[in-house]
Amino acid sequence: MDSSQPALLQQLHWYGHDAFRLDRPLVIYIDPWRLPPGAPPADLILVTHDHHDHCSPEDIAAIRRPATRLVANASAAAKLSPPVSVVRPGDSLSVGEVRIEVVPAYNLDKAFHPKEAGHVGYVLELLGERLYFAGDTDVIPEMSDIRCDIALLPVSGVYVMTAEEARRLTRKAGQPGPCSSEVAPAGGGRWSWAAAKGAHRPGAPTVTSGDTARHQKPLGRVAARGVEQGE
């Protein structure tokens, strides 16, 4: 891997849809769903909201151990076995060496992910780098305050932002990168244009990244606006 790329990319695994795993400094899952048999046990599990393809009690049970820390928004926590650390946008917490900032995730002009539902995304600071997992969201004004080295953005054009909107969002941060270096569109299996940009997909060849940048940048100031349907 190019030394200019974030070191976290070497620890990032994509399971399809919005399910990811990081391997260091803890084994961290985000929105685990349809995990393969034998997935490594988790030290930390983060869940963004209660929809079945993000909050899967069966998958969580398969990787959860007595010492696993489970973090979720209120609607997801209600579907999961306690203990669960319930979070909302604006919260922050630390788990071992990992600092977690909880950020909003919502739709602007659709009913799938209303702002009042309290769905979330996460910014993880670990190993000296920052990873932004946006959750199910449109391009929202709060993204202007987020700084990161890796951004995992949802695309579909029906339930969340379109791929083109994700591209435009990353361009607002300046060239050549999204936050500072990598963007991976997550959700619905629509990864054709970025293909996880370096994330390892278990059982599949590693996909290497294209353009990178060397310094953290904000995602860019984004005005609230409507979202196209479809891609």
- Characterize the biggest β-sheet: 6 strands, mixed
Number of separate helices: 3
Distance between the termini: 31 Å
Strand order of the largest sheet: 1-2-3-4-5-6
Secondary structure: helix percent: under 10%
How many E-type strands? 14
What amount of the residues lies in strands? 25-35%
> Structural class, judged by helices and strands?
mainly beta
Mean pLDDT: 76
List unreliable stretches of 5+ residues: 173-231
Could you spell the SSE succession in H and E letters? EEEEHEHEEEEEEEHEE
Rg, Cα atoms, Å: 16 Å
So what's the overall shape? globular
Folded structure, characterized:
- The protein is mainly beta.
- Helices cover 9% and strands 25% of the residues.
- It has a 6-stranded mixed sheet. A 6-stranded mixed sheet has the order 7-8-9-10-12-13, with helices on one face.
- A hairpin with a 2-residue loop joins strand 9 and strand 10 (129-133).
- It is globular, with a radius of gyration of 16 Å.
Brief sketch in words of this structure:
With 231 residues, the protein is mainly beta. Helices cover 9% and strands 25% of the residues. The protein has a six-stranded mixed beta sheet. The protein has a six-stranded mixed beta sheet with strand order 7-8-9-10-12-13, covered by helices on one side.
